[in-house]
Amino acid sequence: MQSAQALWDKAAPLIAVTEQHPFLVAMVDGTLDMESFQYYVIQDAWYLKDFADCLRRLGRFQGDEKSENSEDDAARLEAFAVGAEEAELSLHKGFFTEWNICFRGVEPMPHTVLYTSYMMRTVATRCHAEGLAVLLPCFWVYMHVGKCMLQLRKDLGDSVKRSPQFDAWIDMYAGDEFEKEVTDFIAMVDVAAKNADSDTYQKMEEHFLMSCKLEHMFWDQAQNLMKWPEMIKSLPN
């Protein structure tokens, strides 16, 4: 059965590991170092900028041979892009104000470039259905881990103290507004999956799995404070 749920089921073993990622668990139990969280938020701001651009590109395929996108879907994709910029990036910008930093003063790190490059290349060069599939984990995995983290927060109760910024992040991705967006995007992917030929669906599956891997690696990067090698950093831009 070709469906969005079948894509999720294919990646379920990896997602089960990701929901227990030490970075995410530490955010809930309050042991996450603020330097790692700041690193993550800065890199995520870079990611969201390109993610919103990808959503807009998919919306512009309306009427193009690459897409069976309806006008309603095109408008919805634009709304998703606005949501990434106004809701998610606004959360990040609020953190930057509190920290008195500008994320543009920090370059995108290796896994950020890896993920965004893969995502943007897929959206730009592959069919519409594949573009939807490569973006789906950013919606669905975030909602899933957000709800897992919310449950862990409830289980821990008042036994731990954590930064209010960690709570704000959890509330965003475990919240009803984000869930509505995710549900709408899943429905769009589901239609594309059901209408795809077998070769296209196989590619959708490959992209979904790869993005799930890259989501996990994105949190690895923040936990380890990954940097560019010194030799590469010394080269001119």
Could you name the key traits of this structure?
Thiaminase-2/PQQC, 0% strand, Heme Oxygenase, Chain A, Thiaminase-2/PQQC domain-containing protein, 237 residues
Q: Gyration radius, to the nearest Å?
A: 18 Å
Kindly state the mean pLDDT as a whole number?
Answer: 92
Overall structural domain count: 1
Q: What summary fits the major beta sheet?
A: none
Q: In percent, how much strand structure appears in the residues?
A: under 5%
Return the string of H and E elements. Answer: HHHHHHHHHH
Straight-line N-to-C gap = 47 Å
Tally of DSSP β-strands: 0
CATH class, named Mainly Alpha
Domain Thiaminase-2/PQQC: 9-222
InterPro entries: Haem_Oase-like_multi-hlx, Thiaminase-2/PQQC, Thiamine_Salvage_TenA
Protein name: Thiaminase-2/PQQC domain-containing protein
Pfam families: TENA_THI-4 (PF03070)
Question: What report would you give on this structure?
Answer:
The protein has helices spanning 4-18, 22-29, 34-60, 71-99, 110-125, 128-156, 164-173, 176-195, 198-224, 230-233. The protein is mostly helical and 237 residues long. It has one domain (4-224): Up-down Bundle (Heme Oxygenase, Chain A), CATH 1.20.910. Residues 9-222 form the Thiaminase-2/PQQC domain.
Write the topology of this structure.
Blueprint: H1 4-18, H2 22-29, H3 34-60, H4 71-99, H5 110-125, H6 128-156, H7 164-173, H8 176-195, H9 198-224, H10 230-233
Helix pairs in contact: 1-9, 2-6, 3-4, 3-5, 3-6, 3-9, 5-6, 5-9, 6-7, 6-8, 6-9
Summarize the structure.
This protein is mainly alpha-helical and 237 residues long. It has 10 helices and no strands. It has helices spanning 4-18, 22-29, 34-60, 71-99, 110-125, 128-156, 164-173, 176-195, 198-224, 230-233.
